[in-house]
Amino acid sequence: MGRRAGLPVAISPLPTASAVLQAVRPARGGYRFVAPNPERTGVVLYSQTYMLVQQSALVRADSPLRSVGELDRPGQVLGVNTDDSVGVWLQERLTAARVRPTPDYTLHDAVRWLQDGEVVAFAGGRQRIAAATSNVPGLRFWTTTSMACARQSPCRPTARIAWRWSTAALDEFRAAAFWPNAVARSGIDGLAVAPAR
């Protein structure tokens, strides 16, 4: 997108979706990449979805839980990261279980809560959970995609001209097979190209 616009590009990683949204300022321009959640509407305009991040869960190795349907039981508590899209997805669907959020994206809280039995599962992005807990004994990661994928979309401060431009660019990137090639090059587990809108 930078080459297309004839502008230099700098990538600035931020630790959470909340931090990404706090960085959105009209005077600063640029794009942010984040999953569109209902509470973020109005803060930014989203272009179309370009990528899907698969969501899954971490449980104790001795846990019998293997699917989302088994999570929604009275008295069960599920951990999520604060402002993570999977938390919104779960809260919209759970009727009996309760969601417990943490701002700790290092997943230290997640591991401790699971080990202490404070939560029965911790849900989040498949790649992030797997990478952060791969060396922790006594835990088991759901290897199948068990929850809805988090849609990833470029967003900007509310400027409709830029929104139309970026949406058209994403269409062209998809038609040129840019997205699947980029996902393959990344080697990241748990990413999928979003279908055409």
Q: What is the helix fraction of residues, given as a range?
A: 25-40%
Look at the structure and name the CATH superfamily of the domain at 54-147: Periplasmic binding protein-like II
Q: What name does CATH use for the topology of the domain at 54-147?
A: D-Maltodextrin-Binding Protein, domain 2
Radius of gyration: 18 Å
Specify the CATH architecture of the domain at 54-147: 3-Layer(aba) Sandwich
* Beta-strand fraction estimate: 15-25%
Which descriptors would you attach to this protein?
alpha+beta, nine-stranded mixed β-sheet, D-Maltodextrin-Binding Protein, domain 2, 7 helices
Report what the structure shows.
By secondary structure, the protein is of the alpha+beta class. The chain has a domain at 54-147: D-Maltodextrin-Binding Protein, domain 2 (3-Layer(aba) Sandwich), CATH 3.40.190. 31% of the residues lie in helices and 23% in strands. It has helices spanning 2-5, 17-22, 85-93, 108-116, 126-133, 160-175, 178-186; strands at residues 32-34, 45-46, 51-60, 77-81, 98-102, 121-125, 139-141, 147-156, 191-193. Strands 1, 2, 3, 4, 5, 6, 7, 8 and 9 form a 9-stranded mixed beta sheet that branches.
